[in-house]
UniProtKB/TrEMBL annotation:
Superkingdom in the source lineage: Bacteria
Biological source species: candidate division WOR-3 bacterium
Protein name in the entry: D-isomer specific 2-hydroxyacid dehydrogenase catalytic domain-containing protein
Ranges where the D-isomer specific 2-hydroxyacid dehydrogenase catalytic domain occurs: 47-99
Alphabetical list of Gene3D superfamilies matching this protein: NAD(P)-binding Rossmann-like Domain
InterPro entries: D-isomer_2_OHA_DH_cat_dom
GO-annotated molecular function: NAD binding; oxidoreductase activity, acting on the CH-OH group of donors, NAD or NADP as acceptor
Length: 125
């Protein structure tokens, strides 16, 4: 069985889901806390990969960023150790939609008008 190293703290429901979905293929270990298991990790998931973890995880081959950016990572050091970095850009459409919705709300005063209407000020709408 392969070892998956979590390099960040996940909320309990997320951690339970990760463990359940991957239990047949991976032993899921957390850093800090599972000292010797870090060395066995072939895959890591998180937002950052401290140098101390990278040095200890000699078998690491894939680091999956739990988000869209990889700018906090030393990509040169990871490549030199043969570690592939992947990220998740699937949230991009939702981020764009939220940005447009917030811009419209700001320009049109949606929150202020909604609050006024809910308080009975019909002129606010």
């Amino acid at each position: 069985m392969k070892t998956l190293l979590l390099t960040r703290r996940f909320p309990a429901p997320d951690l339970a889901l990760i463990r359940e979905r991957l239990r047949e293929r991976y032993e899921v270990v957390e850093w800090p806390g599972d000292g010797p298991a870090v060395g066995a990790a072939e895959v890591a998931l998180g937002n950052a990969l401290p140098e101390s973890v990278l040095a200890a995880a000699g078998r690491l081959r894939l680091f999956q960023v739990a988000g869209a950016g990889a700018d906090r990572l030393d990509l040169t050091a990871l490549a030199a150790r043969g570690v592939t970095v992947a990220n998740s850009h699937s949230a991009a459409p939702f981020v764009a939609e939220t940005a447009v919705a917030l811009a419209l709300a700001l320009v049109k005063g949606t929150a202020r008008r909604d609050r006024g209407l809910r308080q009975g000020d019909w002129r606010a709408g």
